[in-house]
Amino acid sequence: MASEASSNPATATGSPAEQLMKKHAEDAKHKATVEDAEDEDDIAHPPPSKASHTGTDADPTPSTTATASPAPSVSGKQKAQDTPLGSAGPGTPASFDELFPSLGGGPKPRSPAPVAAAWGARKPNAVSSAPSNGIPNGHSANGLPSTPGRGSGPQLMSLPGRYSERIQFAPSQLLPRTQLRKPVPDVLRDINKRSKATVEMKPGPGGIIVFEGRGPVEAVRQALKDVAGQLGSKQSVKIPIPASVRPHIIGRQGTVVQGISQRTGARIQVPKPEESGVPAEEEDDSATIDVSIEGDAVAAEMARREIEAIVNERTSTVNLRLKEIPAEFYPFIAGPHDARVNALEEGRDLKIQVPHYHTWTSQPPPQAPSSNQAPSFTAQEGLPIQLSGDRLAVQQARDEIERQVEQLRQQLTISQLPIFRGQHQFIVGERGHSLHDFLAETGCAVILPPSTDDTELLTVTGPRESIEAGINKVMDLAASMQMASVDIARQHPNAAVGAQAHARSLTRYLQHRHAIQQLEKLYDAHIVLPPADDASSSWELYSRDGKNIIRARSDIMNLVNGHPPQRLLHLNVDPFYHEHLRQKRAEQLLNEFGVQMVIPDEVEEEPDVLLVYEGPSATTSEYQFPKARPSADEVREFERALHLAEEQVLGLTKGYQELTTKQVDVPKKFHDKLRRFVNREQKGVPASEIPVRVAIGEPGSKRSRKTRQTPATPVSETQVLLRGPKDKVDELESKILEFVEQEKIDERERGYTISFDYPQKFANQLIGRRGENIKKYREEFDVEIQVDNGKVEIKGPKAKAEAAKGRIIALAKKLEDEVTHVLKIKSQFHRDLIGTKGSQVNRLQERYNVRVNFPRSASAADEGSPAETGSDAGQRPRGSQAPDEVTIRGPKRGADEAREELLSLLQWTMDNSHTASVSVAQSQISSLIGQGGREMDKLRVETGAQIDVPGARDAVDASGRVEIKIKGTKKQVEEAKQLLEKRAKFFDESISRTLEVDKKHHKALIGGGGANIRNIVVEAGGPDDRRELARMVRFPRQDSDENTIRVEGHKSVVDKIVASIEAIIKERESQIVESVEVAPEKHRLLIGRGGETRRNIESQFRVNVDIPKQSATGSNRSAVKITGQPADVENAKAHILKIVKEQEGETIQIPRHIHHTISDNGQLFRRLRNDHKVTVDHAGEQPPPRPAAGGSTRARINGGALPLITDESQDSSADNVSWEVSDNTVDADQGTIPWVLRGSAENIAKVRGILDKAVEQAQRQSSTGYLILPDPNTYRFVVGPGGSNVNSVRRQTGCKITVPKGQARGEAIEILGSREGVEQAKDLILELVKNAGNGGRS
C-alpha cells in the first residue's frame, strides 16, 4: 500500500498516517538499534542461519552482543543466544537485565509477526533487503532478533566469570576526538580501574567500532553503559505518537516519563496540548505529536523502546477519523443499505461510522463541470468517517476506503437542477425516498441544500453512466408532488398595521408556537413559508395526496380567521431588554393575562416584540389554536388583556436611563481575558437589574441565543461594543479601559519568574482533580504555574505572581494543619449518616470546613452524595478504603468536632435503627399506600417509624410477595409491624367475587348518595369509610356497557354482601310497575321540600317512585310510576292517592282589604303549617299590595320637625303629640282573594274556625291611628317591662298596637281597631307616658 499511496494524486501531500510513516522511515537512519554481533572466530566461517546478516555493515546503529565462553571441557564453539536492547514486553519498562541479557536462559519463544501501527506506515513487506523502521534484517518489529532454527541445537549455558558483551557504534555516534576530555584509551583505562570488568575497543566491519566487555555480568553492563555515556555523542530523536496516548506517556503527575528518564538517562520532552496544535476534542489516533528524546545512542534507544512499548499497549484498539475524504463520496463508500461497510466489518473487531450525508451544511457541493472534466471535490474536516476497533483491522479498512476514494475520484460526476424548495424533502429524507433505496435503484446520490439557504439547486452525484438515471428519478419524484398556495394576507385586508405586516406577524407567531409543524404532521404535508424579509405572504403547501392539501389549506384559513389583527399587538422594545423579557416576563404575562410574547432572536437585533392573546387556556399543555372568527365580546377581551400586558412590558423601560452605545478598542489578544473579566463583573449585578450588553468578537460572526453580550456586530476585530443605561455603560467602559491598560503593563512583565518550595505531599491538592485547582489559579491570577517535584514555578506579572504565591503558600499552611480521622462504622449505617442526597454530610462539611468520605458502596446508595463527587486528591485511593471506614479530613479543630458530631449521630442512628420486615402481597401495596400516599403517611405519623415500601420495579418472590422494611426505635418498629401484619393478614384472607347484575339494577343498589350500598356493606360488617367502601364494592362506570360488580374483602364480609345483593336483585326481579295519574301541579306534594316526601314514601313502603320531570309532555306528564313488590306497590299507591286527595284543599274567600291584617305578614301561615299541618295558597292569584305605613309621612304633614334627644325636655301633653286616625274602609281594595287550605279534614275544620274569628275581628278594625310622641325616649314607657304596658292596653281596648323599634327616626305607633278602641288606646298610651314622666326620667 505504500507504493499505492505514493502514486495517489489525491494524497500527494499525504494523510497524517502517511506523513507519520515517512517520519518513521527517516528517523530509522538515526536510531540506535540492536543487532547480533557475531564472534570474530565465527565471521570466517558463518553458519547458514547468518547468511542474510550481511546488511549490518551499512547500518550505523549501535548493537550489543552477549557471549559466554564455555568451560574447557565443552568441545567446540557455540553461538550465543541473543536478547535485544529494551526487549521488555508492551507497557513494561526495559530493565537493565533486559537491556544486557545473559546466556543460559534456554530457548525463547518466537516473536510475534510484525504489525504496523495504525497511525504509522503501511503494512511492511514480507521480505526486504533494506532495514524496516530502523530494524536490520532478521529482526522482528519489536526488536527481537529473528533466529531460525533456534532451539534445534544444543542448549547454551552461562558460566560464572566468563561473561562477555559487546556494543558497537557508527563513527557518527561517537564524540569527535576534539570534544573528548581524554583520549579513548585513557577513558577505557579509567573505566577498567573502577570496574571489575575489562572493556576493549575493536574495529568492526564497515568502519563500525566495537566495545567488548568481559567479566561479571553486572560489572560488564555498567562498564559498557559508562562507555556509551562518556564516548557516545548526544542524539536527538523525535518519535511521532498518537495524541491520545500522550497522558499515558506522561503518567500521573509525570511519574511515567520521569521514570523512563531515570532508568535510561535520556531527557524526554512531551509537548503540551496547546503546543502540539492538536485540539483536545480531536485527540484520536489519527492525530500525532512528536516526543523529543535527547541522550547518548544507548540511552535514546532505551527510551524510544519504552515509549513505543507503551504506545503498542495502548493502541491495540484504535480510533481513527478520516477527514480527507469528500462528503459527497460517503453514500458510495457506505453502499446501498450500508452493504460495503457491513462487508468490511464482517468477521472483524471493527466499527465503521460513515455520516449519513444528503444535505450539505456549511460547504456546498462543487459546481457541475463542463464537458468531460472531473468535479473538484473537497473534504469536510468537520464530518469525518470514524473507524474504531482492532489496530490491524482498522488499518486494512482504511486502506480499502482510500482505495475506493481513488476510484470514486475518477468515476463520479455531478449534475445540478433547480427544484421547488417545498419538493426537496419529498425526494430524499424523512418524508421522501430513502437515500439507500435511491442509491440502489439509480446508482446515484442526492444532496439537498439546507433550509437556511435560499438556493433551489439540488445536486445529483453518481457515475457518468448512471447520472442520467438519477436525474430522471429526481424529476419523477418532484413531479409526483401536489402543490397549492394560500395567501393569508387576504383574510384580513383592513388590518391597522397593513395586511402584509399582519400576515408576517401571524406567521412569526405560529412558527414560535410550532403550529406549522403540527399542521405538517397532521396532514402529512410540507409547508414552505416566505422568508422574513420577503414581501410575499403566500404559504406553499406540498403533499403527495391532493386531498391532504385541500384539508390543510382549509385548516390554515380557519386558523388565520381565528387570529384577527385585534388578537395581536406590536411593541417597539429596544433589544437591550429582550433577554430580560424572555427570562423574567414572558411566563408572567402568559399566566396573568393569557398573552404570549414573541421576542426576536438575538441574531436579528430587531426591536419588534409581538404580543398575542391566547386566553386562560394558554398555560395548559394541550392549548388549542382558535379557528373561528371571534365575537365582539371576545375582541374586547383581547384588547383589554393586550393593553394590560403592554403596560407591564413598557413599564419595564421607565425605570432606566436613556440607553446608549459605546465602542471600546481592545487588542484581540486580550479578548478571551476580557470575556472572563466581564463575566466576573456582571456576576455581581442584582437580579432586578439588566446587565450591560457586551459584544466581543470578530466582525460579522454569528451569535447564538445563549450569548447575552450581543448588542450588535463589531465592525472590526478589535472593537468591543457596550449597550445599556448611560451610567452603567460609562462605569463598565472605565473598568474595561483600566483592565486593558493593566494587561498591557502585565504583558511587559510576563518574563518575571518566581519559584519556591512546596511540600510534595500536597501537590495533588494544589493541582486538583484533572488539574481543576491549578487551572483556577492560573485563570484567577493570569500567570503560568508549574509544579515539579516539590517546586512551584510561577511566571507572569510580578504583582500577580506574588499574589498567586501567597495563595499557594497559604494553601500549604492550611494543609499542614490538616488531620485525617478514620472511623470504623458498619456499612449498614452509612446511608443514614450520609442523609438524603448527602444532606447530613454536606452540613458537616460546611460547618467544620472538612472533607468526609464514605466508601463508594455508601455513595451509590444515595445518588449525589459528596462521597461520590468529592475530590480524593492526596488521599488513599478510594478502592483501598475499607467498606466500614469513614474518613474525615480537614483542619485539626474542625476535624475533631466533626468526628464528635458524626459519632453522636451514629449513636442516635444505632438507637433508632431497630428494623423489621413484613411480607405482603405485591397487589396489596396500592391499598397500603392509599391515594396520594395518605394511608402510609398516616401510618408513619401514628407509629413514628420509617417505613420503606418497595416500588413497582422491585423484585417479587415466586409467591408474588414483597418485603416492607420498618426502621426506628424498638417501640416504633413493634407498633408499625403489628399494624402492617394485621392489614396483611386481613388482605391475605380477603377474596374477590364478581356478580353479573343487569345495569338497570345498579342505580337501585347504590341508592341516593350511595345510601343503599352503604347500608348493605355496614350490615355485612364492612367499613363505613367512603374510600374503603368504594374499594370493597366496585360498580362499572355509567358510560360503560359492563354489568359486572366486583366485591373484594374478607371472606365473611364478601359473602354477606354478595348474598344481600343477590337477595335484592331476586326481589327486584319479582317487582311490578304501576302508574298513578297525578296532576302535574300536584307533583310537588309527592316530592316535598328537597325530595323529603318521596324519600319517606320509598323508605316506608320499600318502593321506587318515579315522578315525571317538568319537561315531560303528553300522557307521561301525569303518570307517576311505582316500582316494588305487589303488596308494597298497592300500599304506596293508596298512600299517594290519599296525599293527593287530602291536598285537594278547601277554599274560603277573604276580603282583600283585610288580607294582610289577617296574615300578619305571613306569621299566620307559618303557625297554621307548624301547629295544624295545614298549608295555605291562593290558587295562583297575586295577593293585594301591602298598604303603605303612613306614620312618618303623617308626622311630617302635621307636625314639622321632631324634637331631638339632646333637646330640652318638653311637655308630653296631648297638645305636643302627633295623632292621626284614618278610616280603613275608605279607598279599600274591594273584592276577595281565595285562601286554599290543604291538609286533613279535621285540621282544615279547626283552621277554618280560626280564620272565621280572625275575619270577624279584622272587619271590626275599621280605623288605624298613628301616634308620634314628642320625646323618643318615652316610647319605652309605652312598651313597659317585658311588654306589660302595651299588652295591658291591647287587652283593654281590643286593638292591635305596634310600637316601632326605631323610635329615633320619628316613626308612629300604629293602633288598629274600631274607632272607639283606637281613641281609647291613644288615651291609655298618653296616660302611661304622663305617669312615667311624673316619676322622673330615667
UniProtKB/TrEMBL annotation:
Pfam families on file: KH_1 (PF00013), KH_11 (PF22952)
Domain of life: Eukaryota
Record field: compositional bias (Low complexity): 54-76
Ranges of Polar residues composition bias in the record: 1-16, 126-145
Record region (Disordered): 1-159, 358-377, 855-895, 1176-1195
Residue ranges of domain K Homology in the record: 233-312, 316-406, 411-479, 750-813, 817-907, 912-985, 989-1066, 1070-1141, 1261-1330
Matches recorded under InterPro entries: KH_dom (IPR004087), KH_dom_type_1 (IPR004088), KH_dom_type_1_sf (IPR036612), SCP160-like_KH (IPR054548)
One GO cellular component term: cytoplasm
SMART domains, sorted: KH
Listed name of the protein: K Homology domain-containing protein
The species this protein was found in: Xylona heveae (strain CBS 132557 / TC161)
Lineage per the UniProt record: Eukaryota, Fungi, Dikarya, Ascomycota, Pezizomycotina
